[in-house]
Every structure is written in C-alpha cells, then in structure tokens.
Write a structure and sequence with these properties.
single chain, 184 residues, five-stranded antiparallel β-sheet, 3 helices, 15% helix
Length: 184
C-alpha cells in the first residue's frame, strides 16, 4: 500500500499587495472564488483644521491580506491577480499561516467589522496623552465616560489637582520611569 501525498488542501497564506491596493487585491481574489481575510482597524486622528477627532479605516497589516487557497493549484493565479505583488514565501515555497492565528485575529473583530486592539485602562494607571492640544501631558486614569470613547484623567500640578475628559483613542499607558539614582 502506497501513502499518497496529501495535496488539494486549502491553507491560509499571507498575500503581499501593491502599495495601497489591499482592497483591490481582496476584491479580485474574491472574484476568483478565494476566501480572504483583510483585517481592518479604526484609527483616530485629529483634523488639522478643526481639531476634531476623525475616525479612519486602515489595514491592520498594511500591504498584507490573508487568502485561503490550494497553493499547488492556485499559486500562479493568485500571484498574477491585480493588486497582488506576491505570496509570502521562503525559498520559493509559500509559507502557510496557521488557522489558529487567523482565528485569533477574527476573535478580536467587533460587530462593526474592525479589530479591537485597545487595552483597557484600570483606575490608577498612569497615562499619557499622545495627540491633540494636550499632547505630552501625563495623568492618572480615573474612569471611562458613558459613550466609552472618552475617559476622565486626573492631572496633578503644583499643589492643584484637576480632571480633564479626553478622547480615549488619544491616550496610552505611560511608560514606568524610575527616579534618578542617588548616591548615599
């Protein structure tokens, strides 16, 4: 009895796209009947003219999408699809992405279709504002607001304490810094 090499197996692969053509490559692969996964995140930016926060869609992995296909049968077709630069490979052999990795990323996709990456703050966490008019200011996380997009931060300055409410997307956990070393 001879053992057959198992082919005809669809696996996930990372597809490297041409600059700014993730959507085009994704749609063209879907047209070929290929299952794809193009994880998106929601990025917050401040409008430079109005100062209001904007929400923009961006790829979780810029210039990469995931496609599930049988490499033995479809590699040529995938490689020459419009928008595709190449399939990620090593020594001319495509590198498969484990199903568990795709499942892990998909588990973080919310109802709105975006991957949730933000970490939750705990009361007392030291935070730093990374954008906007208060950029660089540090404070202590106090609470989240009802809309869950804004948070309250306690600011402390020379014997005066104040709180400020800011967009959650503009804040990250501050790095812990040690006090300067003192000689005894």
């Amino acid at each position: 009895m001879e053992i057959e090499k198992i082919t005809n197996v669809s696996r996930w692969y990372a597809v490297y796209t041409k600059p700014g053509e993730e959507s085009r490559a994704n749609q063209n692969l879907i047209g070929w009947g290929v299952e794809t996964f193009s994880p998106k995140i929601r990025k917050k930016r401040l409008n430079p003219f109005t100062g209001k926060p904007l929400s923009v869609s961006a790829s979780l992995f810029p210039r990469y999408i995931f496609a599930r296909f049988d490499a033995d049968k479809m590699m040529h077709k995938i490689s020459y699809t419009r928008g595709v630069k190449s399939v990620v490979n090593f020594n001319h052999t495509p590198l498969a992405v484990e199903d568990e990795i795709i499942a892990l990323i998909r588990a973080k996709v919310g109802e709105d279709g975006f991957v949730r990456l933000e970490e939750e703050f705990k009361r007392g966490d030291e935070v730093r504002i990374d954008d906007g008019s208060m950029c660089g200011i540090k404070g202590i996380f106090d609470s989240a607001m009802r809309d869950e997009r804004r948070i309250r931060i306690l600011l402390t300055a020379i014997s005066y304490q104040a709180s400020v409410i800011v967009e959650k997307a503009l804040v990250q956990r501050a790095c812990v810094t040690l006090p300067p070393y003192k000689k005894l």
